[in-house]
Design goal:
The protein is built from 18 helices and 17 strands. The chain has 582 residues and is of the alpha/beta class. It starts with 14 loop residues before the first strand and ends with a helix. It folds into three domains: 15-184, 3-Layer(aba) Sandwich (Rossmann fold), CATH 3.40.50.300; 260-472, P-loop containing nucleotide triphosphate hydrolases (Rossmann fold, 3-Layer(aba) Sandwich); 509-581, Helix Hairpins. Mean pLDDT is 80; it is low at 215-221, 239-244 and 481-504. The longest helix has 36 residues, at 546-581. The strands form four sheets. The chain has a six-stranded mixed sheet with strand order 2-3-4-1-5-6, sandwiched between helices. It has a six-stranded mixed sheet with strand order 11-14-15-9-16-17, with helices on both faces. The chain has a three-stranded antiparallel sheet with strand order 8-7-10, with helices on one face. It is 41% helix and 17% strand. It has helices at 26-34, 66-70, 77-86, 100-113, 130-142, 154-160, 182-212, 220-241, 300-307, 342-346, 363-369, 386-398, 416-428, 440-446, 466-472, 509-536, 541-544, 546-581; strands at residues 15-20, 52-55, 118-122, 146-150, 163-168, 171-175, 260-271, 274-285, 289-293, 315-320, 326-329, 353-356, 359-362, 404-408, 432-436, 449-453, 459-463.
Length: 582
């Protein structure tokens, strides 16, 4: 059972997030809302003519070109082309051989080009660079669409959401505030439920003591009390079954490396005519946590491979420290073949044990530390969710002692509980960490220094995390053309101030059009509510057609919610119109 008795609704233009652990059923719930999966029970209601755009966790890009894909659902060519360009995708690009970031950009562009009433986004920031994430934030804020977003990216959710839905213990709870208020609210609920459970366990102990004292359960006056005791035991079993499991991720350095881990002196690297970086120097010492950020294709992975000695620079030199044991978590998940089972991945040499930091451990026991159940061990990797595959990669990488840990996009698909635990483990790790990530919050929490590549050959290194990089190098990571010479590309000059314009004395075209739409919408909603109330007034309707009664009731309540929102919006626009005409 993933969830049971869930009630969840979205009003126009509300941007909400759906938060929960890996495996809780967030993606399934999104697919039900999108109409891709039928629920086992209950009803899904949408307003007639509602347009829904769904971007799944792993979008399938079809057609000859990205423009063909983006117009496949009827979006006009010019709109689809504009959205592809906005998200940094080439409309003429073939759909074959796309990277994860390119596929994600194309899927988001198609969704926005359809101008939907509702956007359903499943981990939309996966594989996106920070530029694309900020573009997505801006598009969400300016769009006239409702949105329900599943994401692990705290910074993204804090910037975009106005409501939170929390899928936990098979129920969905609602907070009518943005994500920045979610964690204190969730913690308070967990503390309250823990106190309720403690009291219930205490009462259960008293009742079991009563039963153990020899009071017979066959006597009629004790039968009710015995039944209550059985119900309390069943409730406790349910609480224990739904208890939040936690990962047991741990990492050991397996012996200290030399004080110097890696040193680059005036290194330059080209791909063809393009400079990845030019005349860059850095020195990484034991115990440092170095974040590496920049747009997709800027050369972050190339820089990591150069610092590890896997590739040679075109100019300059790289010196590696002594006694290095490296563990590498690759964002491409190249080591995982879809047909292999989880057991095969953990025990590639056969047997039933895996060497965990030089000590044998049963594969099932080790998998359990990463929240895998024993029945999953014989399932193919292809059946695992994105978060489960990422946990499997972490399990494989962290099984061996490593004093240099390289994590390339480790946060993709992981739920926030696992991210929090991973962050705690890495904060206590006494080795050296190279962290490639677009997760601004994760970089801020962990990095002692941050290296940024802007995609044109320039590189800077700043003490601290993402926020420190931004404050100390304003404008460095603004999008730039990559055609300039490395190290010499400058940000475009600020535009000349526009000449003063006479004050606008009437509503903008957009607001005036919306006001007309609302004036037509309000009587329709009022009529819909009146018709629904009239149908529900039939005293025989529920007995005769209970399912239809429920549908009408839900539709009428949804219409009331829409009416309240529309009336509020109409009032604001009307006040603005009157103020401008005064």
């Amino acid at each position: 059972m993933l969830f049971d008795g869930v009630d969840l609704g979205l009003e126009p233009r509300v941007r909400a997030c759906l938060v929960g652990r890996n495996g809780a059923g967030k993606s399934t719930l999104l697919r039900i809302l999108a109409g891709r999966v039928e629920p086992d029970g209950g009803d899904r209601f949408t307003n007639p003519g509602l347009r829904i755009a769904f971007v799944p966790q792993e979008p399938e890009i079809t057609g000859d070109t990205l423009l063909d894909y983006a117009t496949a659902s009827g979006a006009p060519d010019y709109v689809a082309e504009a959205m592809l360009t906005t998200f940094g995708a080439d409309p003429t690009r073939s759909t074959q051989g796309l990277s994860g970031g390119e596929a994600r950009r194309a899927a988001l562009a198609r969704a926005f080009a359809e101008e939907p009433d509702v956007l359903l986004l499943d981990e939309p920031t996966n594989h996106l660079d920070i530029f694309a994430i900020e573009t997505l934030e801006a598009e969400l804020k300016s769009a006239r669409t409702a949105a329900l977003i599943v994401s692990h990216d705290r910074a993204f959710l804090e910037r975009t959401t106005q409501r939170c839905f929390w899928l936990e213990s098979r129920k969905v709870r609602r907070l009518d505030k943005g994500f920045k208020d979610f964690e204190p609210w969730a913690d308070a609920i967990l503390e309250q439920e823990a106190e309720i459970a403690r009291r219930a366990d205490k009462q259960l102990g008293r009742e079991e003591h009563w039963l153990q004292r020899g009071v017979t359960a066959r006597r009629a006056r004790n039968e009710g009390r015995r039944r209550r005791l059985m119900e309390m035991r069943e409730a406790k079993r349910g609480r224990m079954g739904e208890r939040r499991a936690a990962t047991s991720i741990s990492v050991e350095s397996g012996g200290a490396s030399g004080k110097l881990v890696a040193q680059a002196e005036s290194v330059t690297k080209h791909y063809g005519e393009r400079a990845i970086f030019s005349d860059f120097s850095t020195r990484i010492l034991r115990g440092e946590r170095v974040g590496i950020v920049g747009p997709n294709g800027a050369g972050k992975t190339t820089l990591v491979k150069l610092l590890l000695g896997e590739i040679e620079p075109d100019e300059g030199s790289v010196k590696l420290g002594t006694g290095l044991n490296v563990a590498y978590v690759d964002q491409a998940r190249a080591g995982l073949k879809p047909e292999m089972t989880l057991w095969d991945a953990l025990t590639p040499s056969g047997g039933d044990s895996i060497m965990v930091r030089d000590r044998p451990k049963h594969a099932a026991a080790y998998a359990k530390e990463f929240l895998f159940q024993e029945k999953q061990l014989r399932q193919p990797v292809a059946s695992l969710s994105g978060g489960e595959r990422n946990r499997l990669l972490l399990a494989l990488a962290l099984a061996k002692p490593a004093n240099l840990l390289v994590l390339d996009e480790p946060t993709n698909d992981l739920d926030m509980d696992t991210l929090d635990h991973l962050e705690e483990v890495l904060a206590d790790y006494d080795g050296t960490l190279l962290l490639v990530s677009h997760d601004r919050d994760f970089i801020d929490r962990l990095a002692t220094s941050t290296i940024a590549l802007d995609g044109t050959g320039r590189v800077v290194e700043t003490p601290g995390g993402w926020a420190d990089l931004q404050s100390q190098n304003p404008g460095f990571l603004l999008p730039r053309s990559r055609s300039g010479a490395a190290g010499t590309v400058k940000a475009p000059p600020p535009p000349a101030p526009a000449p003063p314009q006479p004050p606008v004395r009437k509503l903008s075209y957009k607001d005036a059009r919306r006001l007309e739409e609302l004036e037509a919408l309000l009587p329709r909603l009022q009529a819909e509510i009146a018709a629904g109330d009239g149908a529900l007034a039939d005293p025989q309707l529920y007995a005769r057609e209970p399912k239809r009664f429920d549908q009408i009731m839900r539709a009428t309540e949804a219409a009331r919610t829409r009416l309240a929102a529309a009336e509020e919006e109409w009032l604001l626009l009307e006040e603005r119109r009157e103020a401008l005409s005064a």
